[in-house]
């Protein structure tokens, strides 16, 4: 294990003890399960209304899945600011992060305090999923092991104790960081923590200014701040999003992923999943920092 991996593991252990666009070189183009984050803070017991709303959301996601039997579909959510349960609907296969990983990448640069002007690259990487801007952010962190470790540090700050970011290119033609394999539950925990992390306001504000051509899925929900990622894999075309969705008494962290045949099919299914969230978000358990 490299020094970086040992350091990341130590940081993850310390946290546990405390109370793509696609990187594709082309143009930027139900079963319900619950998992619980490890924390010394006891998880809040869901309110009966919230639990009922989650059952309704589960039915809605299952209906989408039945309509698309050829696709792998999953959606997860948690209250912003919470370190308790992550509710998962569908079948959350561990998939490539694609450009959703640009969120912790941007945060890592902001937190690096290198004295440079990173604002333009952060804006382009998050609002237009610009790959050149994201690569510039990666280079600012030193590339390789230094950059991967810096991004992992932000993931650990966001209570993701497992995800590792490749230091070098693993698939020719794609960025190293975009090939991170990001579990949906870990991505949801990070997203729930994101607005509460120091330095995150520039990131979350940019996530509210995504360009029109990328406002599918969670982007169809008024007031949502989100980031998508998409690209082809040997097992199928992957579309992912993470986002912060306004509720009636706080905000929800929502993540979704679809693996199907094409970008168009994936984003259309993401739109259907977002409609399910929009329908039930008013009664789902929400939170604040």
Explain what the structure shows.
- The protein has one domain: DD-peptidase/beta-lactamase superfamily (Beta-lactamase), CATH 3.40.710.
- The radius of gyration is 17 Å and the shape is globular.
- The strands form 2 sheets. The chain has a 6-stranded antiparallel β-sheet with strand order 1-3-2-8-7-6, sandwiched between helices.
- The protein has 9 helices and 8 strands.
- The chain has 289 residues and is an alpha+beta fold.
- The longest helix is centred in the first third of the chain and has 20 residues.
- About 15% of the residues have low confidence.
- Helices cover 39% and strands 18% of the residues.
- This is Beta-lactamase enzyme family protein.
- Keywords: Signal.
- InterPro entries: Beta-lactam/transpept-like.
């Amino acid at each position: 294990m490299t020094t970086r991996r040992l350091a990341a593991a130590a940081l993850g252990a310390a946290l546990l003890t405390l109370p793509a666009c696609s990187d594709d070189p082309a143009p930027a183009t139900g079963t319900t399960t619950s998992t619980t984050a490890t924390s010394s803070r006891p998880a809040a017991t869901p309110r009966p209304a919230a639990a009922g709303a989650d059952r309704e959301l589960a039915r809605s996601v299952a209906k989408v899945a039945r309509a698309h039997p050829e696709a792998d579909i999953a959606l997860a959510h948690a209250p912003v600011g919470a370190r308790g349960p992550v509710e998962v609907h569908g079948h959350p296969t561990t998939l490539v992060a694609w450009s959703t990983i640009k969120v912790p990448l941007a945060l890592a640069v902001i937190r690096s305090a290198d004295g440079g002007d990173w604002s333009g690259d952060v804006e382009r990487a998050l609002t237009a999923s610009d790959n050149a801007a994201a690569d510039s952010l990666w280079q600012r962190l030193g590339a390789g092991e230094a950059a991967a470790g810096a991004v992992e540090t932000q993931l650990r700050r966001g209570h993701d104790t497992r995800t590792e970011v490749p230091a070098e290119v693993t698939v020719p033609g794609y960025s190293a960081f975009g090939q991170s394999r990001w579990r949906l539950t870990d991505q949801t925990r990070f997203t729930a923590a994101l607005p509460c992390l120091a330095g995150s306001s520039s990131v979350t504000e940019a996530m509210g200014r995504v360009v029109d051509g990328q406002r599918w899925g969670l982007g169809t929900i008024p007031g949502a701040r989100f980031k998508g990622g998409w690209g082809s894999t040997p097992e199928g075309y992957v579309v992912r999003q993470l986002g912060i969705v306004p509720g009636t008494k706080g905000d929800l962290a929502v993540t979704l992923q679809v693996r199907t045949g094409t970008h168009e099919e994936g984003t259309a299914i993401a739109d259907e999943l977002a409609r399910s969230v929009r329908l039930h978000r008013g009664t789902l358990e929400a939170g604040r920092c």
